């Protein structure tokens, strides 16, 4: 049984992510066990073989991300899954994937930190790490699911966006969503995107690009004879380590290929967009907001599904109507600053943060109390 | 095939220092590769960061210049994802023995189908001559101004102990043996490892009163002892290259089941 048939299924969020990956065409998984992402590796170990792919358990997370980047250069869709400590270890090679424009998918099921923290408790402490964790300037794509359904859907979206833009895509989940059990639906039709390949040998100028800013992919073993390096390179792919102009052109393109396509990449869920009070929440805490907005027409929800790049325009529109904004996060304030930056210029009087640490999510009562 | 069908003439002159042993390694490798009959279009060259890491950039083939210490980790992913490709790694002693040590021993243990060539110059060349995990005891470097007090690694013995299918070590003096070892390694199933003790006159020589490439080269030559003889010397020798001696020869040749066969990826 390769991919699951369309229909309704009941499983854990982590497991639904595996089924999403297989649906997207993932044929290679490498990982290292870590709570609360281990179930992804365990299901991959069983399911990938059935789906004609390979599962590897490797010596650490540095190896895992290196292996999926290597696999991706053979034209294979590849993924790893981890939690905060492992995600920290992956950062150098995450930057390498950005620099070499390698499509990969990382599922980070967040837990409390810093350090080993509380392994089984949900948190949202890796949001800024996902954006800035590697050194240098770059842009990645990060998506935040809040249900078992979205663990399936957004894993597919992550593969699609990663393939389209030749960039790492991160599914930024958390322990509650990863371990949550529930139903999800696999629809009849699922859109799958594959990267654009060079069809004729390119040898020279393998990184030439058009106004889309995404070069075609010269997969290994096709006679392209390309050189791929994490050093600054020009369109030939060869190192140019002392030329400021080459570096600026490369990094600007790597950043712009994401920024210019924000409309295609950014997703958000909005309820009661013209409400007086706007709650901004993503991942686990957003589930408590549904109850609130169901009862209160004067409270709205803005849920960024794409965290990076942040759905700036969509938020600005809602913020223009809001008298106050309340941001819910399971951290000491990360997306809060993004919201503050975007909403600052709106007439909104108050932009506040309601924090929950240690794995407890905000209750609807707490939210209402804060808004009272 | 001539030399410049294999190497990228358009990228000449290369960036290696005068007298560097890498030239000898590249020359021997060219002959080994041609005689092995492997397909350049179906071979991927992978490297980490360091002087030795620059070799794949000069080869006219698909190549992945990765991060410091990690080439074996990337290479394993390439090989398993597309078993039709031959994957060759070039690495330095810092890349392989220090920051990448864990990848090295685990890839040997799994017997991953890779050929790894390590250019051991006993020092960090690229970053200006700091001590490495293979710097012999009492030798000098920019970070051991009073002499190195640590015991070094014997990379080849580590590879044997960890389970590689083929392991050989030669110096840049032993060009014929080096070429033959590389050729055997390229055609060997499972993990094959060739370590080349190589001269770095610019750093290792400079810090150790060997002021020319020739002097370092002479030191390598004089230090080389066949492994068969070395085993009769004092038990101390396993601490490292015999406290200044370098054991050379074939360390192991065996046929443990290779990784992808064990995994069922390959029959
Ligand atoms: C994570 C990381 N740490 C440190 C460095 C700096 N660095 C570059 S090459 C190198 C050591 C090179 O020595 P070796 O691997 O022996 O190769 P050689 O240059 O001697 O061939 C170091 C420490 C780096 N690039 N990345």
Supply database-style keywords.
A: 372 residues, alpha/beta, Rossmann fold, 2 domains, 8-stranded mixed sheet, 14 helices, B: 267 residues, 11 helices, 36% helix, 17% strand, globular
Poorly predicted ranges of chain A (pLDDT <50, ≥5 residues)? none
* Number of E-state strands of chain A: 16
> What's the total number of strands of chain B?
8
Shape of chain B: globular
Count of alpha/pi helices of chain B = 11
Looking at CATH, the homologous superfamily of chain B is Thiamin diphosphate (ThDP)-binding fold, Pyr/PP domains
Shape of chain A: globular
Q: Tell me about the largest β-sheet of chain A.
A: 8 strands, mixed
Mean pLDDT of chain A: 97
CATH fold-type name of the largest domain in chain A: Rossmann fold
Fraction of residues in helix of chain B: 25-40%
Tally of individual domains of chain A: 2
**Major beta-sheet overview of chain B:** 8 strands, mixed
What gyration radius of chain A follows from the Cα positions, in whole Å?
A: 21 Å
Radius of gyration based on Cα positions of chain B: 17 Å
Q: What string gives the helices and strands of chain B in order?
A: HHEEHEHHEHEHEHHEHEH
Low-confidence parts of chain B lasting 5 or more residues at pLDDT below 50?
235-240
Protein topology:
The complex is a heterodimer of chains A (372) and B (267).
Chain A: E1 7-12, H1 13-24, E2 28-31, H2 38-50, E3 54-57, H3 61-72, E4 78-82, H4 84-89, H5 91-100, E5 104-112, E6 118-122, H6 127-132, E7 141-143, H7 148-165, E8 168-174, H8 175-179, E9 181-186, E10 227-229, H9 244-259, H10 262-265, E11 268-271, E12 277-280, H11 286-295, E13 299-304, E14 306-308, H12 312-319, E15 324-329, H13 335-343, E16 350-355, H14 364-371
Helix pairs in contact in A: 1-2, 1-7, 3-5, 11-14
Chain B: H1 3-6, H2 22-36, E1 43-47, E2 62-65, H3 71-81, E3 86-92, H4 93-99, H5 101-110, E4 115-120, H6 155-162, E5 166-171, H7 175-187, E6 192-197, H8 201-207, H9 213-223, E7 224-226, H10 227-230, E8 246-253, H11 259-263
Parallel strand pairs in B: 1-2, 1-3, 3-4, 4-6, 5-6, 7-8
Antiparallel strand pairs in B: 5-8
Helix pairs in contact in B: 2-7, 4-5, 5-6, 8-9
Bound molecules: thiamine diphosphate.
Thiamine diphosphate (TPP) is lined by residues 49-52, 68, 92-95, 119, 121, 124-127, 132 of chain B.
